[in-house]
Write a structure and sequence with these properties.
This protein has 4 helices and 4 strands. By secondary structure, it is mostly helical. The structure holds zinc ion. Zinc ion (ZN) binds next to loops.
Amino acid sequence: MLPGGKRARRGARQVLANGSVAALAACFHSLSALAVLALLGAVAAATADTWAAEVGIRLRKQPRSILTLRPRPPGTSGAVSLPGTLGSAAVALGGVAGSLADSLAGDSVQAVYRCPVCGASPEVARHAGSPERTVRVSGVPGLENDAVSWIATATGAAGTVLFYQLLLS
Ligand SMILES: [Zn+2]
């Protein structure tokens, strides 16, 4: 193994994990807020259709044509079912709940560090590429970005199920 090979591998993985998001963010950077919303709305519409079909198929309810209301086989284009449609709405609401949980956790329990040498505030206990030890100034020890992401996705999962039950009742 090359010297520092493990670090290099980790670096490549981080570039892949964060780079794709960064590349997307860079694409969005020059666009106005409304253009970003339009783009995300298009992605949401494309995926919501898939989500509704997935939920509808698993619930084994008879889908119907959205125009004629005649029964259609599950998964057919133009076929809708109430549980499937409510399921896609629940996914959207659960996503909002998860996003708010992310912000709440990030603003309260997420650990915040400060480097006593250069004053930087990295989101992890160590500087990127520096051995300097940072000091935690607030938040729960060790509760970093990954944990906050877990809180957000867990809230999204629980919220979606909850919203779905509420919408169906
Ligand atoms: Zn520093």
